[in-house]
Amino acid sequence: MPFFRGHSDGSWPLLSGLGRQAPDAFKKQDIESILYYDFLSLGGGLLGRSADSWDVLFAMQHHGLPTRLLDWTTTFASALYFALRPYLALRSFPDIPIAKLRPCVWMLDPFELNRLAKRDPAVANPYTDFEGTYQEAFIEGTKSLGARAVAIIPPQHSPRQSAQRSVFTLHDDLFVPLESFSGECLRKFELPPDSLSDAMSFLTLAGVHEFSIFPDLDGLARHLKSEHVSWM
User: Fold this and answer.
1) Residue 99: what pLDDT?
2) Using N-to-C axis directions, what is the helix angle for 31-47 and 53-62, rounded to 10°?
3) Residue 117, exposed/middle/buried by CB under 10 A (0-12, 13-18, 19+)?
4) Do strands 104-108 and 149-152 pair parallel, antiparallel, or not at all (unpaired)?
5) Residue range 28-87, pLDDT digits in tens
6) 45 in helix, strand or coil?
7) What's the pTM?
8) Which of 121, 122, 195, 227 could tie 115 with a disulfide, CB 3.0–4.6 Å?
């Protein structure tokens, strides 16, 4: 079961949201703790009383906050969609300077990544396979992940997670890109410029679009807008 991740710009490193800032700023602001506790306190009524700190982390990622999770999928078509998503939104694709487009799809062997981390090579379930909770390991610092990054699979609680076949890498070392230490378990496949039109046609034929990836009313509205609304 390989993991896939699409980048619309192949030069982007494999860093989680929290890793895309200066290390000094991260340490000075203590931004991870601030986001976690504010999300937990202000959104507690929406999270449910039984939510533990892993639930909070996944909810934060799901709703767009920067975390130490990096999104992956187990389906190539979903990764390809995210690699091409900015270009699919442009109706005048033939007019775009093709030479400037360098989307790519990353492919990760999650079992080998976890083997490199000296863990059980199975894709980890954070609720049962880690010594401590997210709060203990990363907010309080009383437990340790024991690895730079680990491939994990959470319960698929939301329709979006199920539709996208969501999986993650969980990063302890936030500021070192995954590609710099993952060795042979990671590959990047750049899409040649002359393949982009065919790749977009493949997504259309496969029925992969905004609503299939985001199966909610917002996703449906964006899909219908792209199909039928040409003046906005």
Assistant:
1) 53
2) 100
3) buried
4) unpaired
5) 778 999 999 999 999 888 887 777 899 999 999 999 999 999 999 999 999 999 999 988
6) helix
7) 0.91
8) 121
Chain mean pLDDT for the chain: 89
Q: Kindly state the tokens that stand for 83.
A: 């690699």
Gyration radius from the chain CA atoms: 19
What letter would DSSP give residue 106? E
The candidate with the shortest Cα–Cα distance to 202, out of 12, 75, 98, is 75
β-strands 104-108, 3-7 pairing = antiparallel
Q: In this structure, are residues 65 and 35 in contact, taking their beta carbons and an 8 Å threshold?
A: yes
User: Which residue type occupies 51?
Assistant: A
pLDDT given for residue 25 in this prediction: 77
Which residues, in sequence order, are CB contacts of 119 under 8 Å at separation 6+?
146, 147, 150
Rounded CA-CA distance 82/87 in Å is 10
DSSP sequence for 152-169: E-----SHHHHHHTEEEE
| Cα distances (angstroms) measured from residue 205 to each of 71, 93, 198 | 25, 18, 10
* SS3 of residue 78 by DSSP: helix
